[in-house]
């Protein structure tokens, strides 16, 4: 009788979160998948079952192809750069020295700022003529440049903003992981004459691999999820040079009101994240040790 009562009590505790998860996550995902096989209802014209028509449209959609290429380049830049920068910052502030608290705060400050505010700050940096970067260029006699407004540099401009924003957040996890490395290992390595680089490569890096895996998964998700700065800085332009997949989904669904095609694009995005996430776990499984 006691076991049955505990079972009911456990389900009573889980029920609110379970209802929210089903209502706001799983049901919308299923509805999105179903909508991707239909056309968008417009006015008195009801939606029509189109099968894989929306997915076939992607193969001939130049903007979708451009968004996919841009998203791949954007992810290839922001994911490793933010992880490596976060690890370097964590290593810098892991030691005890005067002003370490101020340095940690300065590294973490971009994380607490809204991405919209961060984008506006960097718009000032990128502003041609009077922006911070242009002022430095003009000081050295270099011509003015519009980094966020040129097709060749727009995507890299928004990528730099994302790296600056995300690195401080990932640094916190690396810093916590570094503090779990036993001091006895450092002392033993010092006695054996082990260099700092060898200790980091052979001992520290393997011990923090679980954190690295966690950070890398979050970095992949954020690379496809965060597009607030694109709204403020470039709006996907110029000439779709900074068009990312999630921003294209927004424009398709809410600007052009083609909800069925947007649903199909969303399914593709979820599939990409799922494949990449599962692949990360399988590839890193042999390198991650939790004990």
TrEMBL record:
It is found in: Cell membrane. Pfam families: BPD_transp_1. This is Sugar ABC transporter permease. The chain crosses the membrane at residues 7-27, 72-93, 105-133, 153-178, 199-221, 260-283. InterPro entries: ABC_transporter_permease, MetI-like, MetI-like_sf. Keywords: Cell membrane, Membrane, Transmembrane, Transmembrane helix, Transport. CDD domains: TM_PBP2 (cd06261). Belongs to the binding-protein-dependent transport system permease family. PROSITE patterns: ABC_TM1. It comes from the Bacteria. It is a multi-pass membrane protein. Residues 68-278 form the ABC transmembrane type-1 domain. The lineage of its organism: Bacteria, Pseudomonadati, Pseudomonadota, Alphaproteobacteria, Rhodobacterales.
């Amino acid at each position: 009788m006691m076991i049955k009562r505990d079972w009911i009590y456990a389900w009573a505790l889980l029920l609110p979160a379970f209802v929210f998860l089903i209502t706001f996550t799983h049901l919308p995902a299923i509805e999105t998948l179903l909508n991707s096989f239909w056309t968008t209802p417009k006015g008195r014209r009801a939606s029509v079952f189109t099968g894989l028509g929306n997915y076939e449209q992607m193969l001939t959609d130049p903007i979708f192809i451009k968004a996919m290429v841009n998203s791949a380049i954007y992810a290839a830049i922001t994911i490793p750069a933010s992880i490596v920068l976060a690890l370097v910052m964590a290593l810098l502030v892991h030691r005890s020295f005067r002003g370490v608290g101020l340095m940690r705060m300065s590294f973490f400050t971009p994380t607490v700022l809204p991405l919209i505010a961060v984008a506006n700050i960097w718009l000032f940096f990128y502003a041609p003529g009077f922006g911070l970067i242009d002022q430095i260029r003009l000081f050295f006699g270099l011509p003015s440049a519009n980094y966020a407004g040129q097709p060749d540099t727009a995507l890299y401009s928004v990528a730099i903003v994302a790296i600056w924003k995300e690195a401080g957040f990932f640094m916190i996890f690396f810093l916590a992981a570094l503090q779990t490395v036993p001091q006895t290992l450092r002392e033993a390595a010092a006695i054996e004459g082990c260099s700092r680089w060898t200790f980091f490569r052979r001992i520290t890096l393997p011990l923090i691999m679980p954190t690295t895996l966690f950070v890398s998964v979050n970095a992949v998700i954020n690379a496809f999820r965060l597009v607030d700065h694109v709204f403020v800085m470039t709006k996907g332009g110029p000439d779709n040079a900074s068009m990312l997949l999630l921003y294209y989904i927004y424009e398709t669904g809410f600007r052009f009101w083609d909800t069925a095609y947007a649903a199909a694009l969303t399914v593709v995005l979820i599939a990409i994240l799922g494949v990449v996430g599962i692949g990360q776990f399988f590839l890193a499984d042999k390198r991650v040790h939790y004990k």
